[in-house]
Input
Amino acid sequence: MLQDVQGSSTGRPALVVDLSAAVIDTFPGPALVIGIEGDVVFANGRGAALSQSMPGEEAELMRSATRRAVTDGVCHRLVLELRTDDLMTLLDLTVMPLADDSGALVLIRDQTLEQNLRAALIESRKRYKDLVHISSDVAWEVGADGRIAFVSGVETLGYRPNEMVGHSPSEFLTEGQDRIAVRFFLTQKPIEDVEIWMRRADGRPVCLMGAATPLLGPDSRWVGARGVCRDVTDERERDAVLARARYREGMLSYVVRSFRAEVEPENMLDVAAGTMSRALSVDGCQIFRTHAFHRGGTVADQFTVGAVYGKCGEQETVLPVLDVLRNGADIHESGSDEWRVLAAATHFNHKMNGAICLWRRVGKDEWADDDRILLTDIANQIGIAIEQVAKHVHIVNLSRTDGLTGLYNRRAFTDDLGRRFGRLQREGKPAALMFVDLDNFKLVNDIHGHQRGDEALLAVRNILLGCTRPTDLVARLGGDEFAVWLEGADGDAAVNRARALLEAGAELDAFSGDPARPLQMSLGIAIHDPALPESLEELMARADAAMYEVKRKGKGSYAVAQPPEHAVAQPPEQHGGTS
Output
């Protein structure tokens, strides 16, 4: 038993020890009374056993601590490590001087278990931290209020811990993730493999795959949840890229199979246009083919329509796009107030042989990278199809085209015109038919010979093609008679085209057989109005009559036929003319 006493000669507290064995034995650990000379004066059972087994070096440290405690008159604390057979025992010694300075009471506490537990706890915490760091990018915990109480690894999200702690997890989720936030961050049961999308500090989305478990209090009430998350954004992006690639591959295979399965070559492009429209969810598709166009001693590629499907915009919108492709671009985008156009050039043997134009109304989806890539891939295949069609068309055109000019002959023009006229009736669109007759052409042959006359006819062909669009139709009906079908043209557009032809026709003067009777063109125009009932034969008759009216009144000009209901009552409207 220890008690404080007064009366020390030095004026410091003194300790009096009752050396009753029963009292010392009540101490749970080893207890010894060591004299000033270092000998053990008294010890309980554990103390005696320890003093006998204590190595000499440690025993000397204990005796030294006893002498210092007696000399200093204060308690001393000493920690000893005893090692035997790879085992280490950690002893915490409290040395208290006796009141008569004859020695000190040494109380010993075995701290081995406590130290091992502390070391194990530290190692466990470090192991937990390392495992969390290795297995996850973000670790978190929410409290009973549903707000973040702890978070680590926030570098993944770009925040500082204090910017997230105390906030609801919903504040950091992308739009539409509220239900997932409740399910994940406030989970009532262990869950795993939950995918959530959060916002980084810079606003970019990040995809996290996580697992969470609820936290329960002593009364089994929910007091929060904790979990870990792994950043799988790159994996999801790779998955998305692969999925889009597989989708494009499937669409490409679908489109290619569709037109390759077509038996009739002339229908291949029609099938391809329809299939592409459906595959790419567009309003319309046009496929153009190119052919050599001779003018002024040069040869250029002229576009002609090979296939049309669905609703397409005005040709004035697509013509600049085709020019860009003709000048070397592989893909180009353009548009108007109503339409967006995405076009790609087609090739065969590294030479452009056509183009594909996709039409989508403004207000619908913008063109995406997948659209561009898929169109480019399809264009490579369509280029082969166009070449096959071109060869087939070439064989067919041997019987459908004029041998000199390469333009449609009368039969081919009439057949094609019939199909176009029928489509106009269904779509309710206007068009114009123009008959072209050369004035004084016989003199060219009589004066300069038939070779010069052929050169003049080729010059007329180049003028007609140069003043028309790819969607128009140009034909040589025979001799010095030509015809032009102006697709979608109303009266004003047809008149403007006629004036352009007459202006370009000035170069024919070089072929004239007689300066007083120059080689020139007389044009007769009939406008098809979808609101008025009229057959194709009646339209052709009106255009023919207008052309002969020009020739009768002076030649070298144009005339526009009156609408069907006035065709008999009134003569064609005459413009210009030469004597």
